[in-house]
Amino acid sequence: MLEKILKKIKNEKLIENGDKIILGFSGGPDSVFLLEVLSYAKKYLDFQIVLAHVNHLLRGENSDGDEKFSIDYAEKLNLPIFVKRASIEEISKQENIGLEEAGRKIRYNFFKEISEKTSSNKIAIAHNLDDQIETFLFRLIRGSSLEGLEGIPTRENIIRPINEVYKNDILEFLDENKISYRIDETNYENDFTRNSIRLDLIPWIEKRYNSNFKEKIHNLVTEIREINKILKVDLSKYEEFLDNKWTLNIELIKEEESYIQRKIINEYLKKYKLEGSREKIKNILKIFDTNGSKIIKLEKNFILKKQYKNIWIEKESNKKLENINKVITEKIPFKIIINNWIIETMEDNKSFGKNEFLTNLKIGDTLEIRTRKDGDKIKPLGMQSYKKVKDIFINEKIPKETRGVIPVILKDNEIVWVSGVKKGEDFKGERNKNGIKLIIRRQDEE
Length: 446
Hints:
By secondary structure, the chain is α+β, with helices and mostly antiparallel strands. The protein has helices at 2-11, 29-41, 61-76, 88-95, 99-118, 129-142, 167-176, 193-208, 213-230, 250-254, 258-271, 278-286, 389-395, 400-403, and strands at 20-24, 48-55, 81-85, 122-124, 158-159, 239-242, 245-249, 294-297, 302-307, 310-315, 328-331, 335-338, 341-348, 356-359, 366-370, 377-378, 387-388, 408-411, 414-418, 422-423, 435-442. It is built from 14 helices and 21 strands. A five-stranded parallel beta sheet has the order 3-2-1-4-5, sandwiched between helices. It has a five-stranded antiparallel beta sheet with strand order 6-7-10-9-8. Helix 2 (29-41) links the parallel strand 1 (20-24) and strand 2 (48-55).
C-alpha cells in the first residue's frame, strides 16, 4: 500500500525535494496513517514535516487526550509540532456559521500562521476515499452543480496523498502493524448530515442494492472530473473591462448553450471564492432577460450587479450615496470631497480618459459644483448644439441610483463638465498647451 501511494506522490509531484510540509495531525487513524506514508516517502524524497494539531475544545477530556497523544507522537518521531486551542462552538456562534465550517476556518487560519512561521510551502490533509464519496453524496443531496460533484476541491498548496485509499484499508494497515491512534467518538453520532451519510445511507445502499456502491461512486467522480476538464470555460472570452472593473457581457454569454452559461457563472463566482449552488446560478441567469438595474446579494458581503448588458461582482459598500442639495463654490486651484467623490484641479497640458478633462480655465476662476437639476443642458465636446443632461445619462446608460450624485461643474451658469460623463465643447483646452485639468475619482480609490 505504501509503495502504491509513493508512486502516486511521485507521478503527481505532490511532494518534491526541498518541500516543507505542514501535516494536519488530529491523532485519528487518517492523520496517523498519512504520517506513516510521509515517513516512508522521506526514504526516497528529501523534504521536511511539521505537525499541526488543533484542539477544538469540543469533547472535554477526550479533546485534551488527542492533544497529548499528538504531542507525544511528534516527540517520539522527533518532529516539530504546533498546537492551537480554539473553541469551535464560540467561533460558530460569533460568526453565525455551522460547526464544520467553523472548524475548517480555525484549521486553515492556523495552517497559514504556521506556514509563515516555518516557511512551509505545502499542507498535507488526511482526506481518504470515503471522505470523497461522502462529500459527493452530501453535495448531491444539497443540489450542487457538476463542479461541486467533483468532491473535495483541490487547492494549489494543499496535497491529499491518501485520497484514493479506503478507510477500512487504513484501519487494517494500522491494526496489522500495531500502530496506535485516537478515536473521535462523535464520528459515530449521526446528528450531523455527513455522519448520517457515513453511518446510515452508505451501509444501507451497500446492503440493499450494491455492495460495490462506493467504488461505483468513485468511478463516477473520476468521470465528472474528466468531463469538467473538457468543458472548462475561458472567462476572458466573456469579460470586459468597464469603469475600472471586470464585467461579464450578458449578450456573449446568452449565445452559449444553457449548461455552458451555468459553467461561466460558476467560474466567475469562484474568482471571488463564492459558492456556485444551482439555486444561486439559476437566480443570476434569471436577471439576464430583465430590464433596468438589478442587484443580487451574495455571501461574504458581496453583491452582483446588473446594468444593461453587463453584470459584475463587488463588495457591498456601507456608505450611502446622498444628493448634494447645496451649491459648492470654489476658486481654482482646489481639491474637494463631495459624496464619496474627490474633485481636484491642476495645471497640465494633457488629460487621459473620461475621468480627466483638460480645460481652457484659468487659475482664480470660480466654479460651482452641484448635482443635476431638471432642465440642465450641456454643449458636448465636438458638438455645436446643446443636449439635456437627463438624455445624456440615459444614452450613456448611467445607473439610475448614481445619476443624482454625479457632480456637475459649472462656470457662469454654463456646464463645464458632467464629471466623468460629458465634457463641454466651449471649455476644452488646447492639446499640448498648459491649461487647467479637472480630475474626478472615488474617495475609496485613494
